[in-house]
């Protein structure tokens, strides 16, 4: 399954209550190694970035993307319902998702609502999600033009395949109210979806799979990290500065490694899992504990046909401008900014900047797209607050 684009309606945090992204190449494709070919002229991206300053909704947007991917994989809504809790006061929201699977294009229309946990007390804020109705469309012919990926245009070349509300009673009883009708076409097409939001403790299987191969990339002072000859969960770690190696459980090994090394091992391990299956890796704040070159190295794993032959997609958030300069296309970067109503506006970089020569970091830092840098008045107010606090502290010591 390849997610082409999606739109969520009724998401209060975002401008016009709409959260929408596309994951296909809308610009020209002079270098096909940077994208993945479905059927010409449609290519999907291999790297997508969400950039913005603090508190612009990047992590929230990423969690919604993960939820949409899991919904299209046929997973129950309850398994990722937390992503939607910010919509609970609205009672319902809608999803349009265009995806490609087994040589065909599909469009899913879903109306999702909250239902009371019990009939006795429906006054509580409802947190159980269910599908009110859904319609699944399938293209009657191949998509030959990018404009046919517009939701309205797609319906003109598509035919209705399934409508949830018209299913027979017998068919409906085999479909839980929190599982999408797309589960009816899912066979072995479910993508691997891996997400890294926070620092996680190092796990024994991860070190077994990737620790020795990548540890010294993130910490050159490590000579080797490998499983103990005795097997089990013990590992041998030797630093170049030490004459002796040490043998410990992974919990002790973790305390001897830097946060960047642990993050790097986990990140590369998850990358390999999705690269070998053409899945999705979602990383919140990709620059956490990593320098610019290492961030670029992670992106290069996805950009390369050699390491990414199946079109796996890396979707990351960042507020580190220099990381953006490793992105070689313009149509795979989104800036998230707060508008005057304090809602998040999602701006596609290629819609505002037409020249590929522009350094994306300079565009970000220059505030060329308004909202990518803190307001001067807010920074000045912070400085005044610190000065006032210092004055109070000085007076308190006199």
From TrEMBL:
Pfam families reported for this sequence: AAA_21
Domain ATPase AAA-type core, chain residue ranges per copy: 48-325
InterPro entries according to UniProt: ATPase_AAA_core, P-loop_NTPase
Highest taxon above the source species: Bacteria
Name recorded for this polypeptide: AAA family ATPase
Species the sequence originates in: Gordonibacter faecis
């Amino acid at each position: 399954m390849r997610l082409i684009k999606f739109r969520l309606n009724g998401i209060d945090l975002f401008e016009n209550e709409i959260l929408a992204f596309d994951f296909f190449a809308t610009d020209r494709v002079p270098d096909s190694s940077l994208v993945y070919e479905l059927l010409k002229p449609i290519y999907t991206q291999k790297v997508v970035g969400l950039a913005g300053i603090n508190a612009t909704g990047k992590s929230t947007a990423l969690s919604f993307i993960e939820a949409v991917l899991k919904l299209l994989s046929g997973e129950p809504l309850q398994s990722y319902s937390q992503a939607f809790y910010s919509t609970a006061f609205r009672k319902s929201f809608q999803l349009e998702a265009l995806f490609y699977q087994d040589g065909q294009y599909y469009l899913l229309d879903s109306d999702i609502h909250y239902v009371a946990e019990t009939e006795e007390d429906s006054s509580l804020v409802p947190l159980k999600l269910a599908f009110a109705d859904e319609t699944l469309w399938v293209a009657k012919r191949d998509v030959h033009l990018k404009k046919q990926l517009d939701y309205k245009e797609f319906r003109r070349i598509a035919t209705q395949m399934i409508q949830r509300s018209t299913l027979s009673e017998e068919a409906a009883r085999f479909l839980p109210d929190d599982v999408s009708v797309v589960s009816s076409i899912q066979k072995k097409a479910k993508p691997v979806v891996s997400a890294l939001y926070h620092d996680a403790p190092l796990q024994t299987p991860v070190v077994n799979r990737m620790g020795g191969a990548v540890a010294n990339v993130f910490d050159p002072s490590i000579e080797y990290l490998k499983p103990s000859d005795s097997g089990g969960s013990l590992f041998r770690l030797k630093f170049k500065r030490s004459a002796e190696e040490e043998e410990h459980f992974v919990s002790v090994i973790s305390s001897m490694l830097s946060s960047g090394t642990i993050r790097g091992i986990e990140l590369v391990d998850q990358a390999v899992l999705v690269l070998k299956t053409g899945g999705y890796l979602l990383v919140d704040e990709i620059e956490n504990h990593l320098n610019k070159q290492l961030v670029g190295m992670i992106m290069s794993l996805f950009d390369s046909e050699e390491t990414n032959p199946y079109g796996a997609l890396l979707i990351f958030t960042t507020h580190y401008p220099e990381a953006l300069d490793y992105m070689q296309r313009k149509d795979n970067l989104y800036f998230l900014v707060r508008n005057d109503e304090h809602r998040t506006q999602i701006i596609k970089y290629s819609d505002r900047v037409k020249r590929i020569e522009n350094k994306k970091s300079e565009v970000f830092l220059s505030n060329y797209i308004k909202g990518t840098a803190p307001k001067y008045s807010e920074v000045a107010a912070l400085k005044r607050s610190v000065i006032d606090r210092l004055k109070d502290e000085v007076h308190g010591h006199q």
